[in-house]
Task: inverse folding
């Protein structure tokens, strides 16, 4: 994949992205059967074979190459189809961070976390007889229990450092989010060789945080697309009082609002992605865009899930109905990678700092 | 489903210099006391001298071809100028309709004579247009207009009453939608035409309909056998409905649909800085930052959605649904900014005061109009529902 052309908005790139979206839909559609547990390993292998799990990670580092825009298409599809695989975690976060650290990228899921260093349970890395000793607890690591590699970003001797370890280096206390996705506690106690502790550039932690938020925004955009589509279909089929629900004006207006929130999140996701692809994650405009998009996605998830359930009535409230695959994810993802309140406070503090008027801050580099 | 939002269209880099120029101009106007930021300035800020100054800078009629006195620039250039002026609360009401709606409409449907007569004046900021659309019995249901156009030698005679005609008392032109032929069976949209009425005209009586604030922007316009020559019919007789609705995507998706209360947000930030300056890191400061940030995130998002629609319009697409969504979301946000301001800076609104109490009063008293004008939000949700296949 050619990153130079794929990143540019244009007819050719649009067509290429559409094709990629169709490929993703084909692979991920109707994989909702959870009897095999929360981890769809078969789907993961298929995605890996198709080169979709490390998209946007440079080829020289062992990734699949390609643009951030392409990664976004794949992640949005994963959100849309409620794919039970750590795609955003691997291509946007873990794979990227391994590449930043100059480390080899394995097959299988790779997850990255910002490790808290303080407190009794804090994550520590110390030199010990020609190697490193990593210890501590990492709470709520998405897909930690199935990860082939975990990259903990921490501080060693005042420098941002990636600490890389694998399944043999930690014990897993399983946890779940409300969608049933693994959010595990990892109890790390490992002797690591020199190569497993690698300094990374300043600002990597800030970028990790923004990438994680952008990943959730894209997933939420996909899940909202699906919730809207299911809601429109249901309102067209379900009849009460002798006519489809969608013929009632009160219901129409609810669905129009769901469509509006879906469109808003989509526009926010597209714009944040475009900004980060164009100017990099460290750019002030990009950081504003990601924060704003995460706030908007949080709102869209809340309003969208509420309306989708209201229109679906009691049926959508059951385990049997697939709506919950979208709505439980919306409820989980809105608060992951920084809550909307956290990101909003960051935006607000930026607006209140200094003496710049709010308008130039909101318009950024435009 | 992907058609819900047009693809993101980043502004071309050349617009940065243009934006810088507009900001410098606004700073000069503020410094010279020629600009007092107002909420809803595209509705209430009538200042013909300001319009002419914009015209002199080449910032009106930007998309009108040079041959007609315009500047042959892109719709995105116009977008940048417009959003800067609105965010600053600049008085743009006098030329607003002419620049936004009438110029594109004339370019599309106007005769050579009409274009030569009106377009250069629009670009100079000297042509002020009011729209004669709603009537006492035809609001949201616009196809029910009863104003009659009767053919007479050399032209038409218009008789009827229009209401909510913004700026009708100052306009140099009123464009009237009237029934020129009976409905085609049950199709009430057939038989409507647009007529250009040059003001003042002795057969046109304009009476104020004061807003609840006491301000005079709306009018009742009574047309009593007003003669309009054939040369002043806009477009083809009978095509009025199509012409009026074709421009709705422009009208519904612009920055005026989410920036009407931005001057209030601006004043709020100033006030919060003052209040929080000594407080430091407090729970109050955190709460203020969070509420402010939520609001900013939504304004930022609406702007991105609006820009995506603007990009699609510039490509010649007609993103009707996305445009309706901008207006539905954006106009509700405009009103919510009032609640944020009231919560974070408890001051009492005062229409006679300057600063925050003044702009707050202006926002509060104009807010009912935000979700009514240009198609009520209920009508817009119906448009969206139809596009989604629900009706």
Result:
């Amino acid at each position: 994949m050619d990153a130079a052309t794929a990143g540019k908005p244009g007819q050719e790139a649009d067509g290429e992205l559409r094709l990629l979206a169709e490929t993703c839909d084909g692979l991920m559609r109707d994989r909702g059967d959870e009897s095999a547990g929360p981890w769809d390993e078969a789907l993961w292998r298929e995605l890996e074979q198709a080169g979709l799990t490390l998209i946007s990670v440079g080829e020289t580092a062992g990734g699949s190459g390609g643009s951030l825009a392409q990664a976004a298409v794949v992640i949005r599809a994963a959100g849309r189809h409620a794919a039970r695989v750590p795609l955003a975690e691997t291509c946007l976060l873990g794979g990227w961070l391994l590449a930043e650290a100059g480390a080899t990228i394995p097959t299988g899921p790779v997850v990255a976390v910002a490790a808290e260093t303080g407190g009794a349970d804090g994550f520590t890395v110390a030199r010990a007889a020609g190697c490193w000793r990593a210890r501590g607890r990492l709470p709520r690591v998405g897909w930690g229990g199935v990860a082939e590699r975990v990259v903990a970003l921490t501080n060693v001797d005042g420098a941002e450092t990636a600490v890389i370890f694998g399944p043999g280096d930690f014990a897993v206390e399983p946890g779940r989010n409300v969608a049933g996705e693994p959010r595990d506690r990892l109890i790390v106690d490992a002797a690591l060789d020199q190569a497993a502790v690698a300094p990374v550039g300043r600002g990597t932690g800030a970028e990790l945080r923004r990438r994680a938020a952008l990943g959730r925004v894209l997933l939420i955009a996909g899940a909202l697309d699906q919730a809207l589509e299911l809601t429109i279909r249901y309102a067209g089929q379900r009849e009460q009082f002798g006519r489809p629900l969608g013929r009632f004006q009160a219901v129409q207006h609810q669905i129009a609002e769901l469509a509006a929130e879906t469109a808003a999140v989509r526009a926010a996701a597209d714009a944040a992605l475009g900004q980060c692809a164009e100017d990099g994650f460290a750019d002030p405009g990009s950081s504003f865009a990601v924060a704003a998009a995460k706030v908007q996605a949080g709102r869209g998830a809340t309003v969208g899930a509420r309306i989708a359930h209201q229109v679906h009535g009691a049926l959508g409230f059951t385990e049997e109905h697939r709506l919950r695959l979208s709505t439980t994810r919306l409820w989980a993802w809105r608060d992951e990678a920084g809550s909307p309140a956290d990101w909003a406070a960051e935006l607000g503090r930026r607006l209140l700092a200094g003496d710049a008027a709010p308008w130039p801050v909101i318009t950024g580099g435009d | 489903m992907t058609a819900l939002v047009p693809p993101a269209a980043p502004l071309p880099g050349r617009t940065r210099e243009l934006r810088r120029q507009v900001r410098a101009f606004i700073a000069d106007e503020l410094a010279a006391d020629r600009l007092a930021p107002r909420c809803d300035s595209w509705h209430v800020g009538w200042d013909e001298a300001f319009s002419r100054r914009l015209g002199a800078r080449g910032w009106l009629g930007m998309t009108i071809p040079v041959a007609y006195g315009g500047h042959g620039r892109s719709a995105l250039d116009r977008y940048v100028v417009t959003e800067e002026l609105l965010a600053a609360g600049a008085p743009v009401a006098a030329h607003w309709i002419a620049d936004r709606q009438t110029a594109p409409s004339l370019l599309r449907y106007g005769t050579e004579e009409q274009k030569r007569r009106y377009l250069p004046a629009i670009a100079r900021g000297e042509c002020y247009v009011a729209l004669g659309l709603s009537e006492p019995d035809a609001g949201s249901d616009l196809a029910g207009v009863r104003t009659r156009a009767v053919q007479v030698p050399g032209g038409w005679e218009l008789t009827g009453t229009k209401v909510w005609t913004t700026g009708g008392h100052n306009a140099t032109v009123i464009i009237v939608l009237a029934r020129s032929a009976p409905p085609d069976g049950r199709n009430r949209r057939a038989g409507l035409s647009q007529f250009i009425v040059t003001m003042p005209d002795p057969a046109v009586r304009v009476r104020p309909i004061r807003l609840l604030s006491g301000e005079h922007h709306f009018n009742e316009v009574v047309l009593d056998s007003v003669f309009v020559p054939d040369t002043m019919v806009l477009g083809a007789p009978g095509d009025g409905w199509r012409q009026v609705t074709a421009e709705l995507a422009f009208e519904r998706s612009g920055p005026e649909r989410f920036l009407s209360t931005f001057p209030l947000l601006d004043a709020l930030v100033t006030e919060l800085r003052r209040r929080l300056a000594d407080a430091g890191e407090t729970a109050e400061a955190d709460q203020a930052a969070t509420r402010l940030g939520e609001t900013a995130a939504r304004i930022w998002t609406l702007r991105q959605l609006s820009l995506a629609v603007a990009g699609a319009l510039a490509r010649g697409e007609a993103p009707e649904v996305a445009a309706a969504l901008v207006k539905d979301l954006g106009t509700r946000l405009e009103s919510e900014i009032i609640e944020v301001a009231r919560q974070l800076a408890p001051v009492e609104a005062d229409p006679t005061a300057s600063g925050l109490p003044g702009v707050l009063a202006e926002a509060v008293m104009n807010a009912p109009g935000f979700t009514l004008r240009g198609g009520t939000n209920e009508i817009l949700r119906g448009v969206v529902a139809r596009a989604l296949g629900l009706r």
